[in-house]
Amino acid sequence: MPFSTENEQIKKFENDEVAQHYFEVLRTLISKKSIFAQQIGLKEVAEYLGEIFTAAGAKVTVDDSYTAPFVMADFKSDNPDAKTIIFYNHYDTVPADNDQPWTNDPFTLSVHYGVMYGRGVDDDKGHITARLTAVRKYIREKGSLPVHIIFIIEGAEESASTDLDQYLTKYKKHLRGADLLVWEQGTRNHLGQLEISGGNKGIVTFDMAVKSADVDIHSSYGGVIDSASWYLLNAISSLRGQDGRILVEGIYEQVQEPNERELALMEQYALKTPEELTDIYGLKLPVLKEDRREFLRRFYFEPTMNIEGFGSGYQGQGVKTILPAEAQAKLEVRLVPGLEPHDVLDKIQRQLQKNGFDQVELTYTLGEMSYRSDMSAPSILNVIQLAKDFYPEGVSVLPTTAGTGPMHTVFKALKVPMAAFGLGNANSHDHGGDENVKIADYYTHIELIKELIRSYEQ
């Protein structure tokens, strides 16, 4: 079929009564702050979504058993034997505080030159309204659905999906057996290809702390007394080689190696390069892997250890000649299948003791398991084939991403094939200032989801 231009997609969006209705719903959603980290607006937004989905004809559950209410909306097919599609989304967002530049108020949906802006417009509220638009358009045109559709929407995704496992345990009998789960979001890459991915890395984050004395000590003793700062620096350095490889016994032995299909998808579709990162971020230090295959393998399929922050001693104006008595650091390990957060942290603790750094105190702060798919499930192959008719630049199919999310939690509970794709672009600025989505991409996602529903017609 012929591809529509960006202007044609915008015109279709503007003339689409259903799309315009839910665009106003999106405007309201953006205006309602729902930030788990600040405990703002979670119940209000969950109840609002319940009202919207009820009005759309769904059977709705708003379960507030835990801090962030869980919203579940069922659209039943007239065919009791129909298959089921699940849409996983989240209504919480990261904050939009004064530390980020915004052209306009982040909680007021604005449109400029075919682009909509607002906190959550891509991550993830815009995906909710676009997918609901597709469902309503199909029902309006056909009268009933050829497939059962269930929306599950959590409110703590940006805070490690707190209590999602509890909700999924509660409702897994209802949700298991689905043919496909469409993940929260996705983007078009810088080539314009729709990225369709099937996994993400896990993570364990932790604090490291050392106290070397009761008080700071005059630095004249530096040749005979160790300081907390040197001790912690050396402890951290002992855990990672200069090439970026983690120097913790037992880590790599547990890593689940990628299979041939996963490696082939990486080779065919992965676009990240050392040169691209150098250009984007203005890197002043050399990348750790120059060879493309080694670079991609490390990026997608291997664990990494990172320092998020480090603090010790005097940082004020001028000089203060001391040996700091305390030092702290925040670290993370990005995990791949085969690695469990608490087990990885235990291995790090044992390695520090073996390396002679038994004074380091570790505190677990956050953890999520990783998930990866080789994208060979028939329902995922169907998505890939359908998408090719909507994106002239084609698709990019990846078995995982380097980011982190609760895919493993969902898969463990529901055992359903999962594919992530959506309406974002390479410069959507998720979690940053001026978060945005192109109207043309928003409407194309509506059309693709509607076509996905249609593909279940018998």
Task: Walk me through this protein's architecture.
The protein has 458 residues and is of the alpha/beta class. The chain folds into two domains: 6-200 and 371-454, 3-Layer(aba) Sandwich (Aminopeptidase); 202-255 and 302-368, 2-Layer Sandwich (Alpha-Beta Plaits). Helices cover 34% and strands 19% of the residues. It is built from 13 helices and 17 strands. It has helices spanning 6-14, 17-31, 42-55, 125-142, 164-175, 228-237, 260-269, 274-281, 292-301, 341-354, 378-387, 407-414, 439-454, and strands at residues 59-63, 70-75, 84-90, 110-112, 115-117, 148-154, 180-182, 194-197, 202-211, 217-218, 304-312, 322-323, 326-335, 361-368, 395-398, 418-419, 436-438. The strands form five sheets. Strands 1-2-6-3-7-16 form a six-stranded mixed beta sheet, sandwiched between helices. Strand 1 and strand 2 form a beta hairpin. The longest helix is centred in the N-terminal third of the chain and has 18 residues, at 125-142. The protein is globular. The two termini are 22 Å apart. Pfam families: M20_dimer (PF07687), Peptidase_M20 (PF01546). Residues 199-355 form the Peptidase M20 dimerisation domain. It comes from Streptococcus panodentis. Keywords: Hydrolase, Metal-binding, Protease. This is Peptidase M20.
